[in-house]
Amino acid sequence: VPAETRKPLSATALFREHAHFVASFLVRLGVRGSEVDDLVQDVFMVVHQKGGYAPGAARPTTWLAAIAVHAVGNARRSQRRSKVEYDQDYVEVALDEGVSAAEAIESAEAGQRVRRALDALDLGLRAVLVLYELEGESCDAIAAGLGVPVGTVYSRLNTARRRFREAYERYELADRQARFAPTRQVSVREL
Amino acid sequence: MSGDPIRLRDDPESPALLRSDMERAARRGFSYNKERGLARLAASIQSLEMSTDAALFTMSERTTGSAPAAAPRGKATERPGKDARRLSAQRSLAITSSIAAMLVSAAVCLHALLPRSLDLATIRSEPAQEPVPLAVPAAVEIAAVSPAETEELKPRSAPLNAERPRSNATVRRLSDASPLLLFFDVPNGAPAAKASNSEPIKRSAARPCGKLIKTNCKPTPTQTSPLRPCGKLIKTNCKRVSPTGI
Question: Cα separations (Å) of A94 from A106, A111, B233?
Fold first, then answer.
């Protein structure tokens, strides 16, 4: 365990270090638009009410991720009640500087493909997959952060990867069929 | 961890497009204005602490009349959540003590009020007042009489219950001592009743505490004033004696 994770951290100190992680994790969980900022605030207000981060088995990132998953679940339940619909076409702004336009477009397309496949998962499976595959957390850290056994994390990860690959291949096949669909040729006589 | 499965972007068995997409998605960044978020968070925390302090101050002022002691500054800035829990515990204690104070004051009020209303010995020991003219029901015999007799017995003054005519049943003379009684319903505040206000008010119907006894008794011929000592009419179903005595 790194030394910096052993000291207790207040909500503001955690925010300075991990606000960007929480924001990107929320976006990868499917949160869009201005709701990201609101949920980041909710997460760190919960941290404040809990008295900050106390060093333990969980790393600060996975501990914050568990709070974020609860916050997203609560927000989705309230959205279902109030029937608020956010713009699903919201496109995240890439921070990568110095990349070409072609690379930026390819990155955006890759992000959309991954996001579509992630949307096929429910929140619990999606959180485990995002933490392991995209955030690079270990299964032990995820288990400690979510407060579940490691075997549960393995099981969820296995299920999430299978469903993710199925959805990804389904959407990719649909894209390929749409791309290579025969277009109707207009003859000269019709003109 | 060595026991963790291979990630999709590192797995050679995964399709190339999937691996590249996962690699790009993992490297992809998102914009987030950290400074603005930090300012908003600090404002939210300050607002929360102020509202908690205000609620605690109000509760403490209501119960004890004094403000709570100031929290130690150093620890509050390090672990504000602990402070919030401590304030919450103090608030619940203040609520409990205020409820206990309300119960004690209610018990004191009941103790002060109960002897006056329930101490019968006090009432009996008071000097005897005029006898209460309780139920002296006029032994009125109602019988059917002929229409001519009815005409004769009708009161000369305007009847008060002209809207509600009675049946043919009327009152016949019972004895020489008692006048001919014609009974009418006495409406509340009727002019006839006010006319008899000049007679001395009989207070005998009152309790020692001064309140009137509610009875269904009918007034005797001598008691023609259905008034309370305060001057208001008594609401009874009793009949009124005709002022003319006819």
Answer: 12, 10, 90
